[in-house]
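FORM 12-B: Structure-to-Sequence Request
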């Protein structure tokens, strides 16, 4: 097993000695050993739960953070490393422990632990837990991916994101925890950066928030750490993480609304905004079940990555924020201007774009998945004869969008499904190079999953949603309630089930299936299932 946090007890003591902590000799060394191995916590240290992520055929990442007082600066921990024990078992009762070890929870990383467990069997369930001193964490379930290239008859996974803490309860997370999924894809907006507000104003008017952020807008590393702690203390979110492994990417609110590259929406000098990005990237790593390959370097963090699920799925997780050029036309809603067709514009950046094309070219999987943040359909959002777009989507970047779709069409890369979030609504539709002038069959299919809680209770369909359906024939479905999606995939068929709640303003919301849409192998048309 590999871990940035994994270190022998002897190595820990040597490290402390090199820093001066053992300068007075063996007695202090023994005292440090005792404090590391057998700490006594004033309060329960695993209040942020456990999580796993990025499953491979032989293992996955397991995560926790020691935080006896999560909302305080320093989270109730001493400013020193702490040993954490971990176990992985083949049964829920931990009668057969197959891997175990020690990791170091370091103060530089908010006492988080990221263990990359290896040597497991492919395509099966495992269970994991942590302990520190006399305290033990809750247990979690994780499933290893099938062996590379193995024949896989079926996969079932969930999609979540956009979970503004203030605007609703996490009932959807409690429900998805019961779905028995292979994994979950989180498309981003795990936290929101804004100050605490008593009310929220959206398309439905102004309403009271059922709960409230602590403090003002977040900028510093301590700010971001406390915001993650407030979110992760939610028991429904903890249940969702403990139920299965997540593949996590970020969108904008993990840092600031509508940021791209080194630019924010307030005109902050880029060098100053990069300091905020650096704090946010570190806090994101500290709180997500990410591998060592995603360890941040300054303001940069490696989040685009590739995974497989046997021969059934090639999963390309994209980052459409970190390398994107500025949002055109000043981000005007339902806007359009010459900058939309700027040949120098980028959504993924050149390196990520070429990485994606290489993955798609060599893929032998039945289904090629682009799991990302912002809509690829060029949806006309403007009422009347003129065309206008949500410019914070691929529609605001016509040339990179056309490049992607041309690549899929010219290389005949079929069975491509794009999974998206950000919109706080459910959508299903088909992708053409230019949807105003569609030519031939659709090139790919897109499913957009609504928010867990952002935008409050919502409604079945808004007036603008009805207009979008009328004005955009390639769009097959729209819904504006909260919830999540479940994808059931076989070699012959992809099905996306949109599950919605009647309300998130209290914890009694009822979950129903609003719609199911399917795509047949070899045919990108989206049809009612």
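FORM 12-B RESPONSE
SEQUENCE OUT:
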């Amino acid at each position: 097993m590999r871990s940035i946090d994994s270190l022998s007890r002897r190595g820990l003591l040597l490290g402390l000695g090199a820093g001066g902590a053992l300068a007075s000799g063996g007695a202090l060394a023994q005292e440090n050993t005792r404090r590391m191995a057998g700490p006594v916590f004033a309060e329960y240290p695993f209040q942020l739960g456990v999580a796993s992520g990025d499953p491979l055929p032989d293992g996955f990442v397991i995560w926790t953070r020691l935080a006896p007082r999560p909302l305080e600066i320093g989270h109730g921990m001493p400013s020193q490393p702490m040993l954490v024990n971990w176990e992985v078992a083949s049964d829920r009762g931990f009668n057969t422990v197959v891997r175990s070890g020690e990791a170091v929870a370091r103060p530089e990383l908010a006492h988080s632990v990221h263990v990359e467990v290896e040597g497991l069997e492919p395509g099966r369930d495992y269970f994991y837990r942590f302990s520190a001193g006399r305290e033990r964490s809750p247990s979690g379930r994780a499933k290893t991916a099938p062996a590379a290239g193995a024949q896989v008859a079926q996969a079932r996974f969930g999609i979540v994101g956009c979970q503004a803490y203030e605007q609703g309860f996490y009932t959807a997370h409690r429900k998805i925890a019961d779905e028995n999924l292979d994994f979950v894809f989180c498309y981003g907006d795990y936290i929101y950066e804004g100050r605490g507000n008593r009310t929220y104003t959206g398309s439905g008017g102004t309403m009271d928030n059922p709960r409230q952020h602590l403090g003002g807008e977040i900028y510093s590393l301590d700010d971001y750490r406390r915001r993650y702690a407030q979110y992760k203390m939610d028991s429904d979110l903890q249940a969702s993480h403990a139920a299965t492994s997540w593949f996590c990417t970020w969108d904008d609110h993990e840092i600031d609304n509508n940021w791209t590259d080194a630019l924010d929406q307030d005109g902050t000098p880029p060098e100053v905004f990069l300091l905020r990005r650096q704090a946010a990237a570190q806090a994101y790593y500290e709180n997500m079940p990410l591998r060592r390959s995603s360890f941040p370097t300054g303001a940069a963090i490696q989040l685009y990555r590739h995974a497989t699920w046997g021969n059934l799925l090639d999963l390309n997780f994209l980052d459409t924020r970190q390398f994107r050029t500025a949002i055109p036309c000043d981000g005007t809603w339902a806007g359009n201007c010459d900058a939309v067709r700027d040949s120098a514009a980028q959504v993924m950046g050149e390196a990520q774009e070429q990485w994606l094309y290489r993955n798609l070219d060599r893929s032998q999987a039945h289904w090629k998945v682009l799991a990302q943040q912002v809509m690829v359909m060029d949806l006309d959002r403007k009422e009347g004869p003129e065309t206008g777009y949500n410019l914070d989507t691929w529609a605001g970047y016509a040339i990179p969008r056309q490049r992607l779709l041309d690549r899929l069409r010219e290389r005949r890369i079929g069975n491509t499904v794009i999974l998206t979030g950000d919109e706080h609504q459910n959508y299903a539709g088909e992708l053409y190079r230019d949807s105003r002038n569609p030519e031939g069959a659709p090139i790919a299919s897109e499913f957009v999953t609504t928010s867990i809680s952002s935008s409050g209770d919502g409604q079945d369909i808004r007036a603008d949603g009805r207009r979008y359906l009328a004005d955009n024939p390639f769009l097959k479905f729209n819904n504006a309630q909260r919830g999540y999606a479940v994808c059931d995939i076989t070699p012959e068929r992809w099905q996306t089930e949109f599950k919605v709640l009647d309300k998130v303003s209290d914890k009694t919301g009822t979950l129903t299936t609003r719609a199911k849409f399917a795509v047949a192998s070899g045919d990108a048309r989206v049809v009612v299932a």
